[in-house]
Design a protein that fits this description.
Oligomer: single chain
Strand order of the largest sheet: 1-2-3-4
Structural class: alpha+beta
Helix content: 40-55%
Number of helices: 3
Strand content: 15-25%
């Protein structure tokens, strides 16, 4: 099998879990969100697809709205790749750090927008122009 076949197999597993899979799968090991139903702005679906140290592929997926979770592995036994609890904790911490950094950046941007905002007059403009 080539990489394309593994990705298609992963997408098929997502579809079998009653989740509309994303059009493209990025095999970078990062968490990706996607539209898991027909609502165009609703990115409740998520996946991560990665290469294991032994050269096999693995992935996890789910839908936060529906509460569906699943895993997939390209190993011949079709068992999810085994990670030690220490490895899983490192992955969880790395993801938590990414979320913290992203939230910090968003908070900084929101603060910038707030500081640049101007006051809005309480009287409508038409009312002010009739007084003069």
């Amino acid at each position: 099998m080539n990489n394309y076949d593994y990705i298609e197999n992963f997408k098929s597993t997502i579809a079998n879990a009653r989740i509309e899979p994303p059009r493209e799968i990025t095999p970078d090991g990062e968490l990706h969100r996607f539209i898991s139903n027909v609502k165009s702005g609703d990115k409740a679906g998520y996946y991560t697809f990665f290469t294991n140290p032994d050269g096999t592929f693995g992935g996890s997926f789910g839908c936060w709205r529906e509460g569906i979770k699943g895993t997939w592995s390209s190993s011949s036994t079709n068992k999810p790749a085994a990670f030690s609890s220490a490895q899983m904790e490192i992955l969880r911490q790395a993801e938590a750090l990414k979320r913290l950094q992203m939230n910090s950046e968003r908070a900084g941007y929101a603060q910038h927008l707030y500081s640049e905002a101007t006051d809005i007059p309480l009287e409508p403009p038409l009312y002010r122009s009739q007084e003069h």
